[in-house]
Every structure is written in C-alpha cells, then in structure tokens.
Amino acid sequence: MSEHVTAVVVGAGHAGLAASHFLTERSIDHVVLERGEVANSWRHERWDSLRLLTPNWLARLPGHAYAGPDPDGYLTSGEVAAFIDGFAARSRAPVRTGTTVVSVRRTDEGYDVATDRGSFRSRAVVIASGACNRPAVPAFGASLPASVEQLTTFDYRNPDQVADGGVLVVGASATGVQVAAELSRAGRPVTVAVGEHVRLPRTYRGRDVLWWMDATGVWDERHDEIDDLTRARRLPSPQLVGTAERATLDLNALTDLGVGLVGRWAAVRDDRALFSGGLRNVFALADLKQRRLLDTFDAWAREHGADDGAPPERPDPTRVPATSRLQLDLGSGEIRTVVWATGYRPDYSWLDVPVVDPKGHLRHEGGVVDSPGLYALGLPVLRRRKSTFIHGIEDDAREVVAHLAHHLASR
After folding, report:
1. Residue from 191, 157, 181, 315 nearest 249 by CA
2. Rounded Cα–Cα distance for residues 219 and 213 (Å)
3. pTM above 0.85, yes or no
4. Alpha-carbon distance 133 to 9, whole Å?
5. Across all residues in the chain, what is the average pLDDT?
6. Same-domain check for residues 150 and 116
C-alpha cells in the first residue's frame, strides 16, 4: 500500500536537504529518500586526500554556516559530510536512509515513487540525486589491453592501490590535476591527457580567487542571462586544489613535478593510445579565458574602490612541451594504470518519465522539469553559475520550491 505525501525529494545531499528546508518553511509535507546515508557520496565516493575547492567561509546552507577556527581552510570530505549531517539534524529533515528509488511514474494526481522499501504517492517530486552518479568513461576504454588496470575517480582512493609503474591520468580538470600531482609525489611516472580545461590561480591580489568570483557577482549570473547555456553546463571544474599553502595547481605546476603532458585521448588502435595534437592551441584558449576573467576582477576592483594601484597579476602562460607524444604503446608495460578523470554523468535509469534527452540529461528550465510537478536541484548552472556549489544551493532551492508551491496551489 502506498504512503501519501505532498512531495518526495530524491537524495539527501546538500541539494535535497535544502529543498526539504524550504518545503518545511512552506508547511508542505514531504519525505526525503536516500539510498545510503545523509551526504552519502561525500562519505563513500571520494578519494582520501580530497578537500573542497571552496574555502570554509563559503560553506553555508540555509541557516547553517561554517563556524570553525579556520575560515580560510578547505574542508575534507569527512568534514563536508559532517557539515551536511549537521544541517539535516538542525532542519529536522524527514530523511529515510537506506531507501533506494527504483522508479518514478506519472499518475493522474502526480507521481508514483517506488522504492525497495515501499512506495509513495505524491503530487510533486524533486530530483536532487546529483549530476555525478556515474563516471563518464569513453567507449574505447573497453579496448585497452588486460595488462593495464583501469580506475575511475569513484574507485581511486590513494597511491597505495595503484601498481608500480607508469600512470596515464585522463582529464585535466580539478580531479585530474589533483590525482596526477598526488601520484607523481608518490613516485609514479605520470602522464596527463589534456583536453579543454579551465585554468584559475588559487589566489589573486591577496585573496582566494573564489572570493573574487563571489564578490564580483560572476557566480550569480543567471541561467537565462548566459549566451551558450548548454556549453556552460558542460564546462569542466576549474584547476584548483584546497591546501593550507593555498597553492596553485595548474599544468605548469604539474610540469614542475615532472608530469608529462599529451593531447586529448582520441582513440585506441592496435593497443596504442592515440592523442590529438594542438596542445599549444588548447593551452592558449585556457590562458585567454583566465586573462579575461582576471580583467573582470580588475575592473570590479577599480569600480568599487578596491584597487590598490598595483599592476595586475597575470600568471605565466601555460608552458608547451618541446615535444608531445601522439601515441603510447599500452602493451609495452610503460603504462600500468589508467585513471579516468573524465567527468561524470547523472543516472536517471529509475526515472520512468520521458524527460531525459538522448545524451542522458534532464530537460528542464531552471530546475523546472518538462513534466508538471517534477523539479531538479544540484545540477550544473541550474539557475546560476554557482548552482553545484554548496553555498549556491540556497537561492536555487528557494526559487524551485516557490515554483513547486505555486504548482500545488494552482491545482
């Protein structure tokens, strides 16, 4: 027999719990369904040394903010889980843990939500299960020789689990550069396959670069103000790492560690990994975008009286290798392990509503999904550029729940 609630929230990460907060604020009865524990991915799907890219002073949820002794530090994954857990307790979110949603179907009155522990009938559903449910591994990964071990960043925990010998890290976003640096410092010969990436200094003009993103309003740009929204939602995470030294970790830093750089991995043929050429152009584009962003910060500083008169800081251009290999023989033993840092994709296999496009992405407008009463939170640039960050969920959740409440009232 189905349990009746007005709304069901799928996922008890920061996005689902923020939705629950605003549903409670509007006295809308609901339940939050979580397949594991609160903040499950932070507890079980992160490598050991991971820290947030955002400084602690940016760790905030509705009515709940970081209050520790190190506002300029960066939370570990365990600390993030504890922070989100504290928010769940403080907001008294009606979470059902250990409850896996197996299907969501439309009904005349709303939705039928089936789980492995019973079913629910609801008038609205908020999908807050995240955008990083499955690693996105290219199809040619199946063509690699059996002698090469393959790990995704869901599998990777620390260098001890990686066999001695060469490692090919595929991807140069935040995850790729962090894993490559860690493996190199552990003594592994590392090569990184570099595609499109976003380069940022860790600090700029004496402040964390994300202070500038926050203060200048870059993060607050709305989805309906962005020229190429599809592209914005596909951009990789910036090359950043959270360390006590607030060090910049970009491709130049990797080169200084002895990491080799090759182009984007394009194909596998006869046990050979084939890489694209044109690293110089890829680097130049990332450098250009970084300069334009720093120009934006400088203009804001002048306009708001925060310009100290010092010359603008500009990081050195990305150094292009004198020679760049276009292929690697994966059968030679030079590469023992491939680490796929090629991003993630959402998993909507349980969603039996025709709202997923051929590439596996939800069709939505600012979190309002293309089915009445169905909503989403926590996806890239959902309503603003900051949507996927912990501090960015409050505004999105407030507005999405407001739309949901209007939908309920209109019926």
Report:
1. 181
2. 6
3. yes
4. 16
5. 96
6. no
What Cα–Cα distance (Å) separates residue 143 from each residue in 150, 171, 267?
11, 18, 9
- Does 154 lie in the same domain as 264? yes
pLDDT tens digits, 72-85: 999 999 999 999 99
Task: Look at residues 340, 357, 379 and tell me which one is the last residue of a structural domain.
Answer: 340
Q: What is the CATH number of the domain that holds 332?
A: 3.50.50.60
- Buried/exposed code over 304-324 (b: 16+ C-beta within 10 A; e: otherwise): eeeeeeeeeeebeebebeeeb
Asked whether residue 197 falls in the same domain as residue 277, the answer is yes
pLDDT of residue 411: 73
Helix (H, G, I), strand (E, B) or coil at 15: helix
Query: What pLDDT is recorded for position 252?
Result: 98
Last residue of a domain, one of 308, 340, 372: 340
User: Which uninterrupted H or E stretch holds 237?
Assistant: none
- Alpha-carbon gap, residue 86 to 76, rounded angstroms: 15
Banded model confidence at residue 231, pLDDT cuts 50, 70, 90: very high
Pair (129, 176) in one structural domain? no
- Count of C-beta atoms within a 10 Å radius of residue 411: 11
Same domain flag for 286 and 165? yes
Can you tell me the mean pLDDT for 378-399?
A: 97
Which 3 state secondary structure label does DSSP give 4? strand
CA proximity to 378, closest of 149, 6, 145, 41: 41
Both 158 and 305 in one domain: the answer is: yes
Return the sign of the alpha-carbon dihedral for residues 298, 303, 306, 308.
positive
**Rounded distance between C-alpha atoms, residue 62 and residue 199, angstroms:** 30
The number of folded domains in the chain is 2
Looking at the fold, whether 195 and 277 belong to one and the same domain comes out as yes
Query: Cα-flanking dihedrals φ and ψ of residue 4, to 5°?
Result: -100, 125
CA–CA dist 338, 351 (Å, integer): 32
If you count DSSP H runs as helices and E runs as strands, how many of each does the chain have, helices first?
A: 9, 25
Question: Do residues 115 and 150 share a domain?
Answer: no
Domain enclosing residue 48, as ranges = 3-133+346-410
